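Customer escalation, tier 2.

The customer says the design service returned an amino acid string that "doesn't look like it belongs to this structure." They asked us to rerun it and document both sides in this ticket. The original C-alpha cells are below, unchanged.
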C-alpha cells in the first residue's frame, strides 16, 4: 500500500483515479493483468497477489499472474475445482482454518503460510473471467474502506481485461484481413491474359465496376461473350455483359428479358453457383440448344447467336461461392480446351478475391470510422472527467492544507466553512465516481440484480439527503403497490440523480414533486422541478452523454447523469422521457415493470414524506 492513507477522501479518490487511468490504457489482456497486480501491490496491504482464470471446460482454475508467492506454491498453477465447491464468488476469509469451503485446498494455503485471503470475482458481462486474490500470511481483519478499494480495483481490472480482449480481437481481425490481401497478391499470372486480368482486378475497390472492366479484357481476347453474375440478397443478378458489338449486347439483353434463365436448370450459371463446380463444353451440341429453347422463336434466336464453346466457373471466397464468370465462343469459331479451363478458373478465383477484398476494405473502413468516433468520444470523456475531478480535488487539498497549517489560530466559523467545502466537494467526487463505475458496469454488461424493491424505503432513502439540506420534496403515491421488480442499486441511482438535478436547477424555495402511478403493467415515476426547463427541441438531446442545455450551462455539471439514467432504466426493461409541464420547469418520467404481487394497503405519506 502507498504511504498515502487511501481511507482518507483525497487519498482514496486519488488512488482510484490513478488506478482507473492506469488500467484504461491497457492495450492487451496481459498488460491489464500486469497493471492490476502492480496497482494491487500499491493500493492494498496484502503479502501476495494472484489473478486466476476459470476454465469451465476443464473445471480448473489457472494462475495467470502473481507476486509474493513462493516457488513451491507456483509449481502447481492449475487447480481443479471441486464438484461441491459452488460458484466462484467474493470470499472474505479472515481465518483459512475455519472456512469450510476451503477444505479441499486448505493444505495449499497451510504449506504457503497463508492465514487470511480475499477473493474478488472479475466479472465480464454475465460471465466470471476469474478472480483477483489477495493473500495474507498473518491473520487479517478486513476493513470496509479496504474492501471498497479492493472491489473497485477488481471492477476496473475486469473492465480493462474486457477492453484488452476487444483490442486483441481487433488486432486478430486486422491480421486476417491483411492475410487475405496478401494471399490475393501471391497469385502470380501464368499468362499475359492473367496479367492483364489481374491488373484490372486491382484497379478499383468498386467491385461491380472492376468486374465490368474484367469482361472487357476477356472480350475479344479470350471469348466472344462474357458475363458475370453475383449473388445479392439471395438472388442471382447479372452485373456485367460484354460483346465486341454494342448492338449484340442490346440484342442479348432483350433476349434475356423475353426468356429469363431457369434458376432450377441442371446446367449453366445457376447450377455452377448452386453446386460450386465449374462447367465446360468444348463444343456445344445442337441437341442441348434444342432442349434449352422455350419455343421455336427462342430456338431461332439462340441458333442465330452461333454459340460454339462455353466455360462457366464459380467466383469463390473463403466463405463460399458468391457468383459465376461465363465465357462463350461464337462467331470467332474458336473452341476451348481443357488448358483454358485452368486459366479461366484462375481468373474466377482472383475475381472472387477481388470482390472479397473490396468488401473487406469497405468493412474495415466502416470499422475504422467507428473506431475514430469511439476514440474521439473517449478523449472527450477523459477530458471532462479529468476536469470534473481536478476542481474538487484542488478545493479539498487546499482546504485540508489550510486547516492543517492554521488550525490553532482559526475561528470556528472559518473552520466549519472549510470542512463544509471539503464535504461538499467530496460528495461531488463520490457521485462522479459512482456514475463512472455504474457506466463501467453497463459497458462490460454486468448482470442485473433484479428483485422486488420496496417503494417506501427506496423513496425515503433517496429523498432524505435533500430534505436534510432544507429542500421540500412533495410525494404523491397513486398506487397501492408496495414493490416493483428492479435492480435496487440502479433504481436508487436514477432517483438520486434526478432529485439532484431537480435540486440544482430549482430555486432555493422551490418544491420538488415526485409522483408515482401505475398502469399497463408498469410503475411510472415522475420527478418535477421548478427550474428553467429546456427548449422543446432538447427533450431528447438531454439524454445524450455530455449534452448541456444552454438554459443551464452556467451551472456546474458534466452532462453524464441523464444519459446514465436512460441506460440504467432501459437495462431494466423500462423507458424514460422528458416533458415540459404547463407551469414551467422540467418533468422526467420513467417507467419500470411492476413486481409480481402487491399489498392491498396503500403506502402512507404525511407531510410530504414516505412513512
Amino acid at each position: 500500500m502507498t504511504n498515502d492513507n487511501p481511507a482518507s477522501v483525497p487519498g482514496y479518490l486519488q488512488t482510484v483515479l490513478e488506478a482507473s487511468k492506469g488500467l484504461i490504457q491497457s492495450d492487451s489482456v496481459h498488460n491489464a493483468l500486469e497493471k492490476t497486480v502492480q496497482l494491487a501491490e500499491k493500493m492494498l496491504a496484502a503479502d501476495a497477489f494472484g489473478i486466476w482464470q476459470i476454465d469451465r471446460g476443464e473445471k480448473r482454475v489457472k494462475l495467470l499472474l502473481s507476486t509474493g508467492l513462493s516457488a513451491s506454491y507456483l509449481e502447481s498453477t492449475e487447480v481443479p475445482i471441486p464438484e461441491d465447491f459452488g460458484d466462484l464468488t467474493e470470499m472474505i476469509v479472515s481465518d483459512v482454518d475455519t472456512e469450510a469451503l476451503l477444505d479441499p485446498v486448505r493444505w495449499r494455503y497451510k504449506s504457503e503460510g497463508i492465514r487470511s485471503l480475499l477473493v474478488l470475482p472479475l466479472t465480464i458481462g454475465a460471465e466470471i473471467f476469474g478472480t483477483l486474490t489477495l493473500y495474507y500470511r498473518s491473520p487479517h481483519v478486513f476493513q470496509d474502506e479496504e474492501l471498497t478499494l479492493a472491489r473497485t480495483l477488481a471492477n476496473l481490472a475486469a473492465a480493462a481485461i474486457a477492453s484488452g480482449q476487444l483490442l486483441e480481437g481487433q488486432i486478430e481481425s486486422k491480421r486476417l484481413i491483411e492475410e487475405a490481401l496478401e494471399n490475393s497478391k501471391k497469385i502470380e499470372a501464368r499468362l499475359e491474359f492473367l496479367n492483364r486480368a489481374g491488373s484490372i482486378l486491382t484497379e478499383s475497390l468498386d467491385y461491380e465496376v472492376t468486374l465490368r472492366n474484367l469482361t472487357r479484357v476477356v472480350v475479344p481476347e479470350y471469348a466472344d461473350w462474357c458475363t458475370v453474375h453475383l449473388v445479392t440478397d439471395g438472388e442471382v443478378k447479372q452485373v456485367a455483359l460484354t460483346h465486341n458489338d454494342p448492338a449484340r449486347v442490346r440484342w442479348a439483353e432483350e433476349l434475356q428479358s423475353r426468356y429469363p434463365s431457369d434458376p432450377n436448370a441442371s446446367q449453366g450459371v445457376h447450377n455452377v453457383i448452386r453446386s460450386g463446380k465449374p462447367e465446360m463444353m468444348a463444343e456445344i451440341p445442337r441437341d442441348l440448344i434444342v432442349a434449352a429453347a422455350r419455343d421455336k422463336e427462342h430456338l431461332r434466336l439462340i441458333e442465330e447467336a452461333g454459340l460454339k464453346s462455353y466455360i462457366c466457373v464459380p467466383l469463390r471466397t473463403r466463405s463460399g461461392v458468391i457468383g459465376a464468370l461465363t465465357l462463350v465462343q461464337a462467331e470467332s469459331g474458336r473452341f476451348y480446351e481443357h488448358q483454358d479451363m485452368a486459366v479461366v478458373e484462375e481468373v474466377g478465383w482472383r475475381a472472387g478475391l477481388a470482390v472479397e477484398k473490396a468488401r473487406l476494405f469497405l468493412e474495415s473502413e466502416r470499422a475504422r470510422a467507428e473506431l475514430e468516433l469511439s476514440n474521439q468520444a473517449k478523449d472527450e470523456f477523459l477530458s471532462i472527467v479529468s476536469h470534473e475531478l481536478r476542481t474538487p480535488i484542488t478545493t479539498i487539498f487546499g482546504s485540508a492544507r489550510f486547516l492543517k497549517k492554521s488550525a490553532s489560530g482559526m475561528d470556528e466559523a472559518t473552520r466549519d466553512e472549510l470542512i463544509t467545502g471539503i464535504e461538499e466537494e467530496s460528495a461531488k467526487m463520490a457521485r462522479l465516481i459512482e456514475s463512472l463505475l455504474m457506466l463501467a458496469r453497463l459497458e462490460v454488461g454486468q448482470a442485473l440484480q433484479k428483485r422486488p424493491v420496496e417503494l417506501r424505503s427506496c423513496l425515503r432513502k433517496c429523498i432524505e439527503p435533500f430534505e436534510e439540506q432544507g429542500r421540500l420534496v412533495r410525494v404523491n403515491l397513486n398506487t397501492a403497490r408496495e414493490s416493483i421488480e428492479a435492480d435496487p442499486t440502479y433504481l436508487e441511482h436514477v432517483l438520486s440523480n434526478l432529485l439532484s438535478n431537480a435540486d440544482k436547477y430549482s430555486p432555493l424555495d422551490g418544491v420538488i414533486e415526485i409522483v408515482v402511478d401505475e398502469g399497463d403493467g408498469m410503475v411510472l415515476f415522475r420527478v418535477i422541478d421548478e427550474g428553467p426547463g429546456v427548449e422543446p427541441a432538447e427533450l431528447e438531446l438531454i439524454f445524450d452523454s455530455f449534452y448541456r442545455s444552454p438554459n443551464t450551462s452556467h451551472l456546474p455539471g458534466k452532462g453524464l447523469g441523464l444519459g446514465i439514467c436512460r441506460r440504467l432504466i432501459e437495462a431494466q426493461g423500462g423507458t424514460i422521457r422528458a416533458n415540459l409541464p404547463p407551469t414551467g420547469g422540467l418533468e422526467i418520467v420513467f417507467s419500470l415493470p411492476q413486481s409480481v404481487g402487491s399489498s392491498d394497503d396503500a403506502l402512507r405519506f404525511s407531510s410530504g414524506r414516505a412513512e
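Tier 2 assessment: The sequence is consistent with the input. The chain has a mean pLDDT of 81. The longest helix spans residues 338-406. Sent an explanation to the customer and offered a walkthrough call.
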